[in-house]
Specification:
With 291 residues, this protein is mainly α. Helices cover 55% and strands 2% of the residues. The chain has ten helices and two strands, in the order ααααββαααααα. Strands 1-2 form a two-stranded antiparallel ribbon. A hairpin with a 2-residue loop joins strand 1 and strand 2. Helix 1 packs across helix 4, helix 6 runs antiparallel to helix 7 and helix 7 runs antiparallel to helix 8. The longest helix is centred in the middle third of the chain and has 35 residues. The radius of gyration is 25 Å and the shape is globular.
């Protein structure tokens, strides 16, 4: 993808103000700021992630991995000027391609640094000084911390998750999923648990999340063929949560489309029967489930 240039002001205008902390921070208020920041970061697709944009600069690596299997890496500085390696021969086409790549890398790097400055200012404005670490006598701030390190610090200092909350989270993984609800609701339930477990420094293993998803899906007794195909494509131990979501989103979309088609066909048949004088139960059982 071609890189579009964004200035500090471009980022600042989209990021806007993040929800300010007005009382002593806790895990929920910190999470609120972080999620608003991530939502803004996702508005700017990057060469690393068209979906998550610059969210990899804000999220802890384990949390980012829930959405992207490839870890985020900051774009390195390609240098001030374009230069060819010494003692090497390149055709004019190769030189042109290398120069274009340099210019794109330079743009991406500038965008990244502008985003970091704009987001840092927004985060700094949302968190009162008294909750920032000391940087010297009478001086409080986040110093040279990265965006992700700022949130790691805030969670470590103020985002305590109690043992009771952790127990509730573990039980939440076992909650059944109703396939009349979008499968994204299942993903969200599992990810909510995973997020707070990571914040509490007790992260679930990747296979635990996938196992929870599989169990909820299999409990519906609706996706047996799809489950066999998923297992064939993704041998146990090689699975990734983002890949799991992509597969099952497609499978559910197909299921939901077929369900709506069948429901529509049933409704039309009943209507035709009424219009042609055929008998039908107008007392009406509107249950269009597949069970």
């Amino acid at each position: 993808m071609s890189v579009q240039a964004y200035s500090y002001d471009d980022f600042k205008s989209v990021i806007g103000k993040l929800p300010a902390i007005n009382t002593r921070p806790d895990v929920h208020s910190i999470r609120g700021i972080q999620m608003h920041a991530v939502t803004r970061a996702m508005k700017f697709p990057t060469t690393q992630s068209a979906l998550m944009g610059y969210a990899g600069l804000i999220l802890q690596p384990d949390i980012y991995r829930l959405s992207e299997p490839i870890p985020w890496q900051e774009t390195p500085d390609p240098g001030r000027n374009f230069e060819l390696p010494p003692n090497a021969f390149f055709t004019n086409t190769e030189i042109s391609n290398r120069k274009h790549r340099f210019e794109q890398d330079k743009l991406e790097r500038n965008n990244q640094e502008n985003f970091k400055r704009a987001m840092r200012d927004a985060i700094d404005g949302a968190i009162p000084d008294e909750y920032k670490p000391g940087q010297g006598v009478g001086v409080r701030g986040f110093g040279t911390m990265t965006l992700a390190e700022i949130f790691e610090y805030m969670y470590r200092q103020y985002g305590v998750v109690s043992p009771i909350e952790l127990q509730k989270l573990s039980r939440q993984l076992d909650q059944p999923w109703n396939p009349n609800n979008p499968i994204e609701s299942l993903f969200k339930n599992i990810e909510d648990v995973a997020l707070f477990a990571i914040i509490a420094s007790k992260p679930f293993q990747n296979h635990s999340l996938i196992t929870a998803g599989k169990c909820a899906i299999m409990a519906t007794n609706l996706f047996k063929e799809e489950m066999r195909e998923y297992n064939r494509q993704n041998p146990e131990g090689d699975e990734e949560w983002p890949v799991f979501k992509i597969f099952w989103k497609e499978a559910y979309t197909s299921y939901d489309r077929d369900r709506q088609t069948m429901s529509s066909a049933g409704y039309n048949s009943a209507s035709n029967a009424v219009n042609t004088g055929g008998g039908t139960n107008t007392g009406g059982n509107d249950d269009d489930s597949l069970s």
